[in-house]
Amino acid sequence: MSEATSDKPKTAAAVKRSHGLGRGLSALLGDAPPREEPVAAGGVAPPTSGKAVQSIEIALIHPHPEQPRRHFDEGALQELADSIAKRGVIQPIIVRAHGGGFQIVAGERRWRAAQRVHLHRIPAIVRDFNEAETLEIALIENIQREELNPIEEAEAYRKLIGEFDHSQEALGRLVGKSRSHIANLMRLLDLPQSVQQAVMEQRLSMGHARALIGIADCEALARTVEQKGLSVRDTEKLVRRTKKGEGTDAPRSGNNATSGKDADIEALELHLADILGLKVEIAHEQGGGILSLRYSTLDQLDMLCQRLSGERI
Question: Is 193:225 a contact under the CB 8 Å cutoff?
């Protein structure tokens, strides 16, 4: 979802949908009253200023160096800037007092777009967050808006686990994902940097990248996949052929001779598994079929039930 829509009035349906991961985000941020308190030039409000919306000079604000999101789509950013030029910044950003100014906790795209249209002030909420809380909120906000690519999301998980002692289970509860989803994403960080970059730039999908993990000539295979426009299923065939020493010629599309399952069905299984973080099996027959979802813990079952019922963690 483009953040441009975040600066437009929300419909009742949109407000209802935001109660998913927003529950976790709201628990950290709290509700903000719609009033503004200007912060004078050079004056930094105390970090305990609470939930009130303030008008802060953009020059006093700087981004967080560990912001999970590194890639900003130019077209979407310009679209947001155009919206802000017409309507202003409707949704305040979240900042914390830092280094004689303010550091962005959530809303860097709005800050960047506001600079493009030469705004001098931006509505913001100043909160007192430590480093771990700051990264958690930035991660939740980006995941909620589906704006992180798999590599950025994986790097954020690794930092929260490595530097702030979060477990994969705890992170799953925090962001509404299964432990297996987090584990699968973090495995992408074992790929060579050039392959990770291809995923970040959407030249390869997560399914492509996952198939290439642990392959000795991973970078060469990734270039072949990209140049020939191979599907995820064909990439998996290519990897198997390479492991058997049968060369790197691109396999022909079609049904899997081993499993007998249609390649499109298997690709759909992989796609749903990436979304849900669960093992997915589809048994398709003429006129219908069976969709099976496998879970290993009650937490995963609870997460699945909430998603199927229209709720989110």
Answer: no
The CATH class of the 150-308 domain is mainly alpha
Helix (H) / strand (E) element for 280: namely: strand 279-285
Answer for the pair 140, 119: CB distance below 8 angstroms, yes or no.
no
The DSSP H or E segment spanning 91 is none
Residue 258: how many CB atoms within 10 A of its CB?
A: 8
Coil, strand, or helix at residue 185?
helix
CA-wise closest residue to 177 among 270, 303, 296, 309: 303
Q: Which two tokens stand for residue 312?
A: 């989110």
Q: What is the pLDDT of residues 204-229, one digit of tens each?
A: 998 899 889 888 889 999 999 999 99
Sheet holding 61-62, edge to edge: 53-57, 121-126, 93-98, 101-106, 61-62
Domain regions of the chain by residue span = 3-144, 150-308
pLDDT tens, position by position, 37-69: 444 444 444 444 456 888 999 999 998 887 777
Measured CA to CA, the distance from residue 27 to residue 248 in angstroms comes to 51
Please confirm, yes or no, whether 108 is among the known catalytic residues.
yes
Catalytic pick among 108, 147, 152, 155: 108
pTM above 0.70, yes or no: no
- Domain 3-144 annotated CATH 3.60.40.10: no
- Please tell me the least confidently modeled range out of 32-41, 233-242, 296-305: 32-41
pLDDT, the chain, mean: 75
